[in-house]
Every structure is written in C-alpha cells, then in structure tokens.
Design brief:
This protein is 74% helix and 4% strand. Helix 1 packs antiparallel against helix 3, helix 1 runs antiparallel to helix 7 and helix 5 runs antiparallel to helix 6. Strands 1-3-2 form a three-stranded antiparallel sheet. It has 224 residues and is mainly alpha-helical. The chain has one domain. The N and C termini lie close together (6 Å).
C-alpha cells in the first residue's frame, strides 16, 4: 500500500488550526502587557474573554490582521476537505457538500464577528455573542461530519491513514461536545458566571482549532 499526498486540505488544516491558536494567545499576551486585560491563565481562570483581546490598540491590529485571513483560510479548508473525503470514498457527494457549506457558513459568521469587534453598545455586544456562538456550533457540526466520515471510511476499507486518526477525532469531538453541553446546562440552571463562560469559550475555541490541526495527519491510502 502506498500513501498518496493530498496537500491542500492538510496544509490548510495546519494553517487554520495552528494559526488561530497562535493568534488568540499572542493577542492575549499583547493585551495583558498593555494593561487592557489582567494576567492569568484564561483557560482556567477565565479572567477575560477572547473578544477583549481584540478591542483595543495595539492588540486589535494583531487580532484582526491574523484572524480575518485565517477565516478566509477556513473557507478554503472546508472546500478542500469536502473534496478529499469524497475522493477517498469516506462520504457521498451530497454529504460532502453539506459539510462544506456548514463549515463555510461558520467561517462567514466568524468574519462578521471579527468585523464588529470594537463597536460599542448592547446591541453590538449581543450580536457579536450570537455570531460567535453560531460560528462555534456550525464549526462543531461540520467537524462532527468529518469525524463520522473518517470513522466510516476506516471501518469500510481502511482507506484513510493513520490508523489512530478515527479514534483521535472521535475523542476530540466528544470532549468538545461535553464542554458545550456543560455550558448550556450551566446557563439553563442559571449557574453561569462571567469567568466560567469566558474560560469555556477559550477551551472550546482551542478544541475546535485542534480538530482542524489534527486533520493535517490525514492521508488517503491508494493501491500501488
């Protein structure tokens, strides 16, 4: 068996996932250094939101200059990933297109959120919150479709490598789902605090980005 290189979705995966993790963390460090947000471990302490790291200069320049091109990268990623999974026999064409458009819609919602950063007012804050929540939700749905397709393909004929990929994607998607459901439960029980919400947001963002990055390892096995 030989392993075919499928560079487009793989390198886009690395750029989208790793780039977004790097961007939000660098923006946080710059914002904390400028005194606009407190120093802490936001993934645990929830001392600030991701949005707060992109509201003021100079960190806002870094945040938007990095995240807007990365949102465009995500659009190309979903186009490439859909084609890759269809060509590998992991999913039908119709399902691949649904996956593509779900992921692309998430990227467009993220773009809208980024463009609204820095606009004051309760309406703008509410709209930003809705945009980022919908973007997270649609990204997770598209990634769940990828996870299901990879597992189905591996079960049918082991057409995708490496062998650990289906289990790794399932574990990552499961943790993301549990964290998202926990967030919904806290809100339903009115147990949410601002710090808890911000910590969950940081962790959800990184888990979704890790899913992108993890698909860098995907290969399609071809008969030699």
């Amino acid at each position: 068996m030989a392993v075919a290189r499928v560079d487009s979705p793989r390198w886009l995966a690395l750029i989208c996932g790793g780039g977004q993790i790097l961007a939000i963390n660098l923006a946080y460090v710059l914002a904390a250094h400028a005194g606009h947000v407190p120093w802490c471990l936001p993934y645990w302490d929830g001392c600030t939101s991701i949005s707060a790291t992109g509201r003021h200069l100079p960190e806002a320049v870094l945040f938007k200059a990095a995240m807007l091109p990365l949102a465009l990268c995500v659009i190309f990623y979903w186009r490439a990933m859909g084609r890759f999974l269809v060509s590998a026999g992991a999913t039908a064409g119709a399902t691949g297109r649904r996956m593509q458009w779900t992921g692309i819609s998430a990227a467009l919602l993220l773009t809208g959120y980024l463009l609204m950063l820095g606009i004051d007012g309760a309406t703008a804050r509410g709209l930003r919150h809705a945009l980022v929540v919908l973007s997270f939700a649609l990204t997770f749905i598209a990634q769940a479709l990828v996870t299901a397709a990879v597992r189905r393909c591996a079960t049918a004929g082991r057409a995708i490598s490496p062998e650990w990929m289906p289990g790794a994607l399932l574990l990552l998607s499961g943790v993301t789902l549990l964290l998202g459901l926990g967030n919904v439960l806290l809100e339903a029980l009115d147990l949410h605090t601002g710090r808890a919400e911000d910590a969950i947001e940081w962790n959800l963002a990184v888990l979704l980005d890790l899913h992108f990055a993890l698909t860098w390892f995907l290969r399609r096995k071809m008969q030699s």
